[in-house]
TrEMBL record:
Keywords: ATP-binding, Cytoplasm, DNA-binding, Isomerase, Nucleotide-binding, Topoisomerase
Extra remark beyond the main annotation: Few gyrases are as efficient as E.coli at forming negative supercoils. Not all organisms have 2 type II topoisomerases; in organisms with a single type II topoisomerase this enzyme also has to decatenate newly replicated chromosomes.
Record-linked PROSITE patterns: TOPO_IIA
Protein name: DNA gyrase subunit A
Gene this chain is encoded by: gyrA
Protein family membership: Belongs to the type II topoisomerase GyrA/ParC subunit family.
UniProt keyword Cytoplasm, yes or no: yes
Active site: Y132 (o-(5'-phospho-dna)-tyrosine intermediate)
Signal sequence, renumbered to the chain: none
Gene Ontology annotations for the cellular component aspect, listed alphabetically: chromosome; cytoplasm; DNA topoisomerase type II (double strand cut, ATP-hydrolyzing) complex
Function: A type II topoisomerase that negatively supercoils closed circular double-stranded (ds) DNA in an ATP-dependent manner to modulate DNA topology and maintain chromosomes in an underwound state. Negative supercoiling favors strand separation, and DNA replication, transcription, recombination and repair, all of which involve strand separation. Also able to catalyze the interconversion of other topological isomers of dsDNA rings, including catenanes and knotted rings. Type II topoisomerases break and join 2 DNA strands simultaneously in an ATP-dependent manner.
GO BP, one annotated term: DNA topological change
Amino acid sequence: MPESSPSSPDAPLQGGRIERVNVAEEMKNCFLDYSMSVIISRALPDVRDGLKPSQRRILYSMHELGLAPNRKHLKCAKIVGETMGNYHPHGDQAIYPTLVHMAQAWAMREPLVDGQGNFGSIEGDPPAAMRYTEARLSPLGALLMQDMEKDTVDFVPNYDETRKEPVVFPAAFPNLLVNGSTGIAVGMATNIPPHNLKEAIDAVCALIERPDLSIEELLSYIPGPDFPTGGVIVGTSGIREYFATGKGSIRIRGRLHIEESKTGRPLVIVDDIPFNVNRAMLVSRIGELITNKVLTDVTDVRDESDENTRIVLELKKEADPRVVVNNLYRLSALESVFAVNMLAIDGGRPRTLNLKELIECYLRHRREVVVRRTRFDLKKAEERAEILEAYLIALANLDDFLEVIRNSENRAEAKIRLRGYEFTKEQVEHFGIVIRNPARLHNGRYRLSDAQVDAILDLRLYQLTGLERRSIGEEYNQWREKIRELSELLGSEQKIMQVVKEELQAIREKHGDARRSEIMEEEEEVSLEDYITNECVIITMSHEGLIKRTSLTNYRSQRRGGRGVTGMVPQGMEGTDSRDFVEHLFTAATHDYLVFFTTEGRAHAVRVYEVPDMGRATRGRSIANLLELQPQEKVAAMVRIPFRRDDGGEDASWRSGGYLFFSTASGLVKKTALEEFRNIRRGGIMALGIEPGDRLIDVKLTQGSDEVVLVTRQGMSIRFSEKEVRPMGRQARGVRGIELEEGDEVVSVVVASSGATLLVAGENGLGKRTRFDEYRCQARGGKGIITMRRTENTGEVVGALSVCEEDEIMLITQNGLLVRIRVQEIPVVGRNTQGVRLIRLAEGDRLVALARVYPEDDREPELPA
């Protein structure tokens, strides 16, 4: 067989072979390995101690060098060399900047390293070379490694397997939450803001006491980030967002105030700058704006900072400081955005965490640390108690043991002979020993262990004195008590968490300080409605849930009996659902609130300006794009809550003292205070308990003393005072409003008002107005009286409204036709009549709903000019 050619793929290569591989697949696998290495071992912090591997190795090297907070500083070059040689072989250019960062008070909310020398400045000046600077652990840096020698964390071999390093630190305080972290990995990045130590510990302790705390409740303990450079955080919406989702953005402004110079000129003084902003570059940027005549009211800028920031801007005498400040925020880094992404390593995998999840991860870690430390202490206590038991036995049998030792040729023989001694349980108890572990008894007798025999053989003569014998007994009793306490601690989850809480509170009291960053509340923010014209619009929604808003001017007034204009694409047109038709129509101002009530009894709220603005003939957008509806939900009613501000400029729309009056198809009614709906979540809240087979028909806004009229499909009605319905909570189902005949149901709820009339319309286009005084007030729950005489001409009643002479109404047909008519054109007749024709219907069409159109001069609150 011929030898293989050297160029052959199967040619042997010094014990190996050349193999064919797919280059693309090989590159993919190599890049994935590299990516995971960067993510896990370099760029992202561990959620338990908040440290990246490089930071952890530097701090551990300082710990091994004995650089405690009460020891003298050591050259940074020595620290870097120790770290690089033992744990982190990546070069001093990777290690020294990390060490410097942990010592910079403007970069870390609670520095972990106490530096001595030039460690840079907030102006961006570089630190001195590591041969000139010195460092030691700060008190909080040392606390991260407290109890590490008690087997509280796992250790793994270092890069050359010559020693071991910790996988994570015990972390006596939530470092990730307190100091935050920043890192860029492959395909992902983390940017966690720092928080106040006191507030972070308060939140952790609160979650220990109440594990079911919501993120909203945690906000009362941690109102937001606390940056080392101070500043002002604008608004709380970004804070709430990243607390709930782990992602969000925060606007930070420099803190400033206005002074007056000796010459009478106004001065703007910058006291704090935003986090991660270079002070020198900020001053330079402001100088450029002055030079380029962008800030025309500013004549000079000076940096008078020492260890505290003080940037002075001198203005012209006639300048308005508020205008200058707004321009500074707009044009310079005096206002910046901090994009939050709370990504950390949890269980060996990168994970985006919200505030509660981050605290829970830390608590699980801290609980494990306390449990492992307690087990370690218990083991040591039991080992010491075992030795003391040996001393007590030896002192009680001193003559016999001395005889054995004297008659033994060597230590090994003495050890064997002493191991042969056995004692009964009664004898041991007589020696003052309490047998804690029944496994120590062999066939009911107590034997000495190897450790105890060694301790007896090592017993010194001075320990045989009476004083020493008493001290041994006292020490043994102390260790017994210690063992009991540790055993009880391990057996109680509540006590373990109490220890975690007490240790955190001790750190809070000793190392906590006041908040540096101010949080500007929501009311101080510019509201979105300030940029939106408050105008009157019509809200329409179809049977299939298509919603839109349209300007009121798109609907011209017509005379009674007209053919109308198209308010939606008529049925049967190409691209439309022939079964769809307009079912709800509402008039509101763009600043108002719209509260949607579903047939399932849930409430959803949006602002009118959030509803899509579309043309008169368009179909609208699906309500599912606006509300987070459940699959079985369908909108049954809409209520306009007028937008109001109180004297302080706050939103007072929900504090009117009014009620929401509910009615279901089966005749049940309920009223609930409007204020109970002031905090409607995006996913909606429960507004009414619905019985099986029933559904919500309508909801009205009332004042608590109104009279309401229920109108049924078969033309019956009942009028009663809403005082007969006591206020109920949102979960209540209500009480009986009207007793219905079989097959009948409620179609409308009307609030009676003086000077108004009740307009009732049938499905065949006939309708009429009747004075409210023809409807006598009855007791709630009766059968009621006739409100419209039903015939083949009228059909079933489709709805009813309370209207005045100057009102206009909108009639909606099944085919999407809308007719706007004046109420004064509809005659006032008696209750038991058919009425007149309101709308001429095409064949196959029918009236499905009617709604009042609010005149623009009847708005509340007043529309802006």
